[in-house]
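Two proteins follow. First one:
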Amino acid sequence: MALLDDFNRRLEEAGWPDDAEFRGFLARFANLGPIDTLRNCFTCGHKQDILIWAGQCHVSSYGAGRDFLVRDQMLGHAIDASQKLLGALHSDARDHMLRRAWIGPRFQIVLSFPELALNLPLGRSCFGAEPGALSYDEARALLLGRDGDTPSLLEQFSNEMDHTRTPYSDIDVWAAWYACIGRCIGGKPIREFSADPAELRTLGLALRALGSRVSGCSYASDLPLFRILGDSLEAFDHAQDGKNVALGWIDIAGYHLQAGDEQRASSAYMRAGGRFHQIAERLMAQGKSAEGNECLVQAHDAYEKAAAHRANAAVSSGTSGSTVAQAHAAPDEPVNAAGIHSDTP
């Protein structure tokens, strides 16, 4: 298909298409003649609707395309189009595309049509309750499925997030990832996500990365940041990854500080300190003094912050606060999912 091939070449060149080129592509793509390769992928839908949706989705799969759609106030239409297009796919084409999902520009979950260089990035609604959205089993196969030694999509995402400090994206991409993970959890307790500790740890890392990006967004989001951080911490706990549990409590302390709640922040720092202290004792007993001392430093730092924020909270409320020594003497509280989420401000 010459139109699509030429457009894709322009997207891969150093200079991006300008807005007029994007508009021209969408207009011409919507009025293409018969396309057997594309038509065979669908079981329903009017031809022109399919082409309009497909054009919008393909443009939105590229960073420059998303920027254009934002400028033209069309990104929301493209996100809606992804769910409509997904729902209209023939089951064979849908299965084929889901098995070959990849992480595209700006960390989008992208499907590609067979025998055609046309992309379908999955938006939040693709994992919702709308007709044609991914089922629980489909979402788990998408996120956790492996092809030989290739890491799962969840592993790829958590690895890329871990090695990229400030990836450029938009809140709709993070919302799609959170919806995908939520569909895989299926309303069940976090501990039932997987019997494999490695998969639970990967889930924790992915949720932590999402929480970090959501908290860094400069505009309002309806994503539940506190629950994301709490679920991440719980996943680490069930994976028996104590150090990441401690770091998870520090993330939660940061959340409370941003909300102006120093009392809850102090409590979270206390839990972090207790975890670091437990890990340090275990490492020392194993003869790993360097690692143990590092955890002791982290424990002391957490306890100091707990004491400082508790003192500040006490001043605000007119009561006396605790000292650093008292903070060190306080017992560590066990991680408890219900406790995490019931602590919501």
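Second one, unrelated to the first:
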Amino acid sequence: MKKLLTILLLFAYIQSQAQTNQLKKIENSIRDNGIGNKFEKQIIDLNNDQVDDYIYLYQCGEPKCIKVYLNIKGILTEQISEQCWSYELSSVNNKKKLTLTLGHCCGESPYVSIRSFEFSNSQAVIKDNYVLTNIEYTGSSMLSPDFYNSQSETAVINTSDYNLRFSPSTDLLQGEEKETFTYGTSEGTNIIAQIKMGSIINILSQLIQKDKTWLFIEVDSASLIGKNHPVDFNFKDQKLRGWVSSKYVTRK
């Protein structure tokens, strides 16, 4: 029994030393590749397996870079390595959720990329991957709903060149909003893209006004007309979110 305990303690010590050495190697690499030879580190159990995982945020250019490592059987395994402006950790149904926000470039951007991840015992699992209009360019407009449907609903666009807007309104932009948001498909409007006829969309929420029902949707970039649209972050399978009128939408 004493011999077994000694072996177990020795194994734990060797494993601990190996992880310490791996941490040093990871952090030296981040210092070498970052700006200013420094980083922010958060130690947290991301997947509820009672061992520490690691999040590193460091300056690597105009945006920052983030790296996330899961501790899998004593070995730190890189799960996420990409650029972001910032990250946020939340808890949903006792599961940690990591949300990354990234603008197009140069510290300012009319659109932002939102990517969120949850974590299993062995990997990061992407949950959200979409583009949204940046609120700094749109004043007090309602860019996303206050409440979401419990499940998304599939629907089809049944007219051509259907307008996707950053807010649930057909009014022309006014005042400061008109001056700051100059990136729509039509000058002075909140139209950010147009959707092809026959496209499949996902309805995430709806807003009923006096004379109109607005749908907050998510749509594939392949369903958007032309190449001049907001989805250009080069993340695989990224979608665009915004508002459409329900008038020419067939709900399944």
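SUMMARY FIELD: The CA atoms of residues 155 and 252 lie 6 Å apart. The chain has two domains: 34-133, 141-251.
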